[in-house]
Structures are given as structure tokens and as C-alpha cells.
Amino acid sequence: MAATQYNKGFSDAQSVNNSKRDNFTYKDLNLFFSPNPVTKDVSKVTDVQAIKRSVRNLVLLNPGEKPFHPEIGTGIRAALFQPFSPIMISALRTRIEESITRYEPRVILQSVDFGEEEQNLDNNTLACRINFFNRDNIGKCSCYKRFISC
Asked: pLDDT tens digits for the chain (150 residues)?
């Protein structure tokens, strides 16, 4: 039986679980299409990594980009060229929260933060930090941090 392996490069709950006794193992294709060094096939991401990729995809989708589901998306890239104000940041936060709670059932959303010290509005860069709990492992909080730029 394989033991649980922890990736020391991450400070949050992102770990790889190879235990056969775990009922909740999420698997997804690595969309960077990097080859597995052993099998030479497309590598996979599991557990928290797969959930983080899903959250990232939800946040970066524009409405109408996903075929047959035009309602999915936040439109956050279009907001990069708008004047930033507390109202705009509140609207973006609401869009992200609604999208994640509606379309990602594996997470419990804790917060969506826009750090003002990390913003570079002259270069159209927006920093967003999303904190969430894995619904199957509520004890550990995971974080997805993204710099969105055009």
C-alpha cells in the first residue's frame, strides 16, 4: 500500500494522496500536456491540484467561451480595462463567488481577496487570492492566487 506523499513546495493543503483507502481522489488531465516521465503519456493532476485547476478555469473563463454553456464565466479579463473602484472590485468579487459556488461543488468558498499592495493597474495586472476548503477534507484550507494580466 502506497503511503501519502506530501509536496514540500506548497505552503497550503496541496498534497498528493496515493492511498488506496481514500474514497475521494479527484483526477484530471494536466492541461499543460507535460508528459509523464515513466509512461510518456499525458500526466494527470490529482486531489487539491485538480480542484485548483478547476477554480482557475472557472475564474478565467469569459461568459460565452464554454460551448453549450454561455452562462459560465466571470468576465474578469474584460474588467482589466475598466477604472478600478470599490464598486468594481465588489462586482468582480461577487462574480467570482457566484461562479465558484455554483459550478464547483467540491469546494467551500472562504474568501475572495484583491490585495491592493499587489495591484499594478498601470500594466493592467490584477491580483486575486481565493481561499477555499475542500469539501471532503474540511480541516485544511487551500489557496489559489493568480495575477491576471493582459
From this structure: 444 444 444 455 545 555 555 555 778 888 778 888 888 888 888 878 888 888 988 998 999 998 998 999 898 888 877 777 788 888 989 999 999 999 999 889 999 988 766 566 666 677 888 988 888 776 667 777 766 654
User: Which residue, 67, 32, 28, is CA-closest to 50?
Assistant: 28
Q: Which CATH number fits domain 49-149: 3.40.50.300, 3.10.450.40, 3.30.930.10, 1.10.443.10?
A: 3.10.450.40
Which residue type does 150 have? C
Parse the chain into domains and list their residue ranges. 49-149
The residue type found at 60 is L
Q: Is the whole-model pTM more than 0.85?
A: no
Nearest-angstrom CA–CA distance, 150 and 101: 26
